[in-house]
């Protein structure tokens, strides 16, 4: 039976979805003010594998991953001369899509943007206000009353009194309590804002995910997660405001992906010790990066290094050499290899053990090759490709992969963005024939163009 480690209970638990056969899963997405780094890649590759495996196990998964397109960092980026808010967010949404496409990650069933859900966020704040969990402060902001929520700290295992002592160094006098967090921010001159019962303003960060997740998945989610750094305060605050509004449990299973470290420090933009996904993929095949980040258990903190990439490259080479030259065949059903693979993945998605099964399967294929038992070898090769695919690997043609192992042979994100830029210019010049041809060319590459009222974005088909 599938068991998942629940951050809230700090133990593995048998997983039972709210609705039999169906799973609601929400993963916190990125704030689109810059390019994604490989720490983001680690989180989204982990959830990509989780969704693929759950679907392999015949669950109907509703996968939602949001985009934060209004935030202080985005406003600052625009104010630094990088264009309007819309231009900044459009640029980095396209970059996000390019990176996810290059990594061949599944497209979420829904990928809501925060600015599209302002009415739902306002409605949520009104519910909290009605339930006496929110108050309008003298500075015009609306805050959440943390002390009112008795279970605050239950997710992150933090003591509320100790948190308050730590917060005294940064007291906001408008708050009733230093721990209270903002739900709705009063508009400042020159910032984007929306009308609300409390005046012009914009949502706080924590509010966004509660409103969007409950809109798509209901008041109680089967699974909610993100990076380890989101446990506190983001997910703690999400949980507090959601349960205060609905009176129901917000999430049954909380999942968090471990840090990716550089020189024993967490990779982050604030520390300026990160590599962007596109930078790495200029030098490394996407599957090599994916293998490196999948070979460790999703909850573990791992060190990113060149040595790790070399080991990943060598491992994939072994898999593809085993696949090369064998004719297409049907895979065996319920083989011992598949049973072992399921056992590993049912144990809190233990991808490290699952990959060990693929190595044993590769050895058996090579053994059959040496004995010229090619029918069985081909059948096991089909199984290897199938199980690898559940981990988001072994999707390339063996010959092509082996020839281009040291480079990314796919069209690069920058090339896609250049094509999109050319199309936008053609549209501006009313050269509709050229614009339509560029769209068709992108569609043949599996890219869907979406023209909005003020921007154009794209995603993988």
Characterization of the model:
It is a single chain. This protein is of the alpha/beta class and 461 residues long. The chain has 2 domains: 18-261, 3-Layer(aba) Sandwich (Rossmann fold); 283-403, Four Helix Bundle (Hemerythrin (Met), subunit A). The chain contains 16 helices and 15 strands. It has helices at 38-56, 72-82, 85-102, 118-130, 160-167, 205-217, 231-246, 277-281, 286-294, 306-323, 336-346, 351-370, 374-390, 398-403, 413-428, 432-444, and strands at 3-6, 11-14, 22-27, 60-65, 134-136, 142-144, 181-186, 201-203, 221-227, 251-257, 260-262, 265-266, 302-303, 447-451, 456-460. It has a 4-stranded parallel beta sheet with strand order 4-3-9-10, sandwiched between helices. A 4-stranded antiparallel beta sheet has the order 5-6-7-8. Strands 12-11-13 form a 3-stranded mixed beta sheet, with helices on one face. α7 (231-246) links the parallel β9 (221-227) and β10 (251-257). α9 crosses α10 (306-323) and α10 packs across α12 (351-370). The model has no long low-confidence stretch (mean pLDDT 92).
Task: Please supply descriptive tags for the structure shown above.
461 residues; alpha/beta; Rossmann fold; Four Helix Bundle (Hemerythrin (Met), subunit A); 2 domains; 4-stranded parallel β-sheet; 4-stranded antiparallel β-sheet; 16 helices; 15 strands
Strand order of the largest sheet: 4-3-9-10
CATH topology-level fold name of the largest domain: Rossmann fold
CATH architect. name of the largest domain: 3-Layer(aba) Sandwich
Tertiary shape: globular
Q: Find the structural class using helix and strand composition.
A: alpha/beta
The end-to-end distance, rounded to whole angstroms, is 33 Å
- Percent of residues in beta strands: 5-15%
Total E-strand runs:
15
CATH class of the largest domain, anyone? Answer: Alpha Beta
Mean pLDDT: 92
Number of domains: 2
| Major sheet attributes | 4 strands, parallel
Task: Report the radius of gyration as a whole number of Å.
Answer: 24 Å
Number of helical stretches of at least 4 residues: 16
Helical amount among residues, as a percent range? 40-55%
> Can you tell me the residue ranges where pLDDT is under 50 for at least 5 consecutive residues?
none
CATH superfamily of the largest domain: HUPs
